[in-house]
């Protein structure tokens, strides 16, 4: 662009600066006007980029004129800002007075989510029994989530349909953890026995129905020491059940299978609704029992994988579905209701 043409455009902007800023009525409009002139794509910055195209003897003068216009824009902006704020203050002061004796608008107080309340209650029980609380990452390596726990390569939990895998380093399977057992592995790798922890947290599996959610809350427990026995496991979980569900709660252990415990069991408690006396009970389906957790003695292979001698140490482990426990405590039929954010439902619990 030639020097005279560039000078004409500078003069056009210069002539309209005061008029444009005087017409601005609020701060948002003021900011837009300022950006149109001195923003990254503003007209004055665009003209500045045209300076190299002018004759060498004209550049200095054109640059000085541009800088002078920029200075006028900055001053006009300051004046307009003060004017707009002064006008707003005057309007506020001239408005009808505020009656501070009027009652305020009531807002319903918030409270913890039912699942978090249930989780806190479970954690408090085990902390009261001497357990420490341990946490770990939700995005985990398959080494900690599966391999060190002794999962066979063809175990159903390894199936892509059960697990959310995510992108990771080449050669490493990275996934959203399917349980909080990796926290147990990390604790055993970093702390020599004795170990006595509970590991609460969010876990992920590709399940979605009335009794399963793709994301749910779990808490697992682990005790590793000399002479830990199945009797310790049974006594511990009976104490937990009575403190969680009531002193009159009955328990039973059913043999089961888990790849990282041997022997393994599932714990049932007497129905919290009918106490086993109603064959038509919708909660226990007439059986009188409700399944609450899985448990077992830590498999020797798991102990070896983390560098603990199974000839010297033994361990017990258990896993509690907090969502299912909340279902039982609040008599909710569909676990998905906890995650639909209906304040009418959540406020009723």
Short description:
The protein is of the alpha+beta class and 349 residues long.
Question: What does this 3D model show about the protein?
Answer:
The protein is built from eleven helices and ten strands. The protein is elongated. Strand 3 (165-166) and strand 4 (174-176) form a beta hairpin. The chain is an alpha+beta fold. The chain has helices at residues 3-22, 27-38, 43-48, 56-94, 114-128, 142-145, 181-190, 230-245, 300-305, 322-330, 343-347; strands at 132-133, 139-141, 165-166, 174-176, 195-204, 215-225, 251-258, 261-270, 289-298, 314-321. The strands form two sheets. A seven-stranded mixed β-sheet has the order 1-5-6-10-9-8-7, sandwiched between helices. Strands 2-4-3 form a three-stranded antiparallel β-sheet. 41% of the residues lie in helices and 19% in strands.
Percent of residues in helices: 40-55%
Would you count the extended β strands for me?
Answer: 10
State the assembly state of the protein chains: single chain
Helix/strand structural class: alpha+beta
Shape: elongated
| Number of helical elements | 11
- Secondary-structure element series: HHHHHEEHEEHEEHEEEHEHH
If strands are numbered along the chain, what order do they take across the biggest sheet?
A: 1-5-6-10-9-8-7
* Radius of gyration, CA atoms, in whole angstroms: 34 Å
Q: Largest sheet, if any? A: 7 strands, mixed
Low-confidence stretches: none
Mean of all residue-level pLDDT scores: 83
């Amino acid at each position: 662009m030639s020097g005279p043409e560039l000078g004409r455009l500078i003069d056009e902007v210069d002539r309209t600066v005061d008029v444009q800023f005087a017409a601005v009525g609020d701060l948002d409009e003021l900011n837009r006007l300022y950006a149109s002139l001195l923003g990254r794509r503003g007209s004055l910055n665009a003209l500045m980029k045209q300076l190299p195209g002018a004759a060498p003897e004209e550049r200095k003068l054109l640059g000085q004129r541009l800088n002078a216009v920029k200075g006028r824009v900055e001053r006009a902006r300051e004046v307009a800002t003060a004017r707009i704020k002064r006008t707003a203050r005057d309007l506020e002061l001239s408005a009808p007075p505020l009656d501070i004796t009027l009652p305020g608008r009531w807002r319903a107080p918030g409270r913890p989510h039912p699942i978090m309340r249930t989780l806190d209650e479970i954690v408090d029980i085990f902390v009261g029994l001497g357990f420490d609380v341990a946490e770990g990452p939700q995005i985990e390596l398959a080494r900690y989530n599966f391999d060190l726990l002794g999962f066979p390569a063809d175990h159903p939990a390894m199936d892509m349909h059960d697990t959310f895998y995510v992108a990771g380093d080449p050669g490493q399977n990275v996934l959203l953890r399917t349980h909080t057992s990796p926290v147990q592995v990390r604790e055993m790798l970093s702390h020599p026995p004795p170990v006595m922890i509970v590991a609460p947290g969010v876990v992920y599996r590709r399940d979605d129905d009335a009794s399963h959610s793709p994301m749910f809350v779990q808490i697992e427990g682990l005790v590793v020491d000399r002479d830990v026995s199945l009797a310790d496991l049974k006594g511990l979980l009976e104490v937990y059940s009575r403190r969680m569900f009531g002193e009159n709660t009955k328990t039973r252990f059913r043999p089961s299978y888990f790849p990282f415990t041997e022997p393994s069991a599932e714990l049932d408690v007497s129905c919290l609704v009918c106490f086993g006396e109603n064959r038509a009970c919708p909660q226990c389906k007439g059986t009188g029992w409700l399944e609450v957790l899985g448990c077992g003695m830590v498999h020797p292979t798991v102990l070896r994988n983390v560098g603990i001698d199974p000839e010297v140490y033994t361990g017990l482990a258990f896993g509690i579905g907090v969502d299912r426990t909340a279902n039982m405590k609040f008599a909710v039929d569909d676990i998905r209701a906890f995650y639909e954010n209906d304040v009418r439902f959540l406020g009723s619990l």
